[in-house]
Design goal:
Length: about 130
């Protein structure tokens, strides 16, 4: 009876080892599947993040272009509007003559002498 009990105990132990081995394999399979799923999810999430980043980059580029175009249009409009309020600049080149309106006879000699002076010299004489 001890031999039969020992044999039976051995069978139970072998069954337990076999079941534990199957359980270990199942756990390994589940961990492998979970790891694979996590990697797939990570790759999918990474691809989605890359696509979202590209999309945001395109939107920023489009917005920047639109802002530059608007800035250019505003500048042109401002210049156009300002052109209505600016006076035309007319340059006159030449020297202005100082007219001698002195009619007294006592200064005739000084008037004759000043006639040959330049405009700058005349203004000096007048200021003295």
């Amino acid at each position: 009876m001890t031999e039969a009990a020992a044999s039976k105990g051995l069978q139970i132990a072998e069954g337990t080892i076999h079941a534990a081995s199957k359980g270990t394999q199942m756990v390994k399979d589940n961990l492998t599947a979970a790891n694979s799923t996590t990697l797939d999810c990570s790759e999918t999430a990474l691809e989605s993040a890359v696509q979202a980043t590209k999309l945001v980059g395109e939107k920023v580029t489009n917005l920047t272009g639109a802002m530059n175009q608007a800035r250019s249009d505003i500048r042109k409009s401002s210049e156009w509007i300002l052109s209505f309020f600016q006076r035309p600049v007319c340059g006159t080149s030449g020297t202005s003559e100082v007219e001698d309106t002195d009619n007294d006879s006592s200064d005739d000699n000084s008037d004759k002498n000043e006639a040959s002076l330049s405009v700058n010299e005349k203004s000096k004489v007048v200021n003295q």
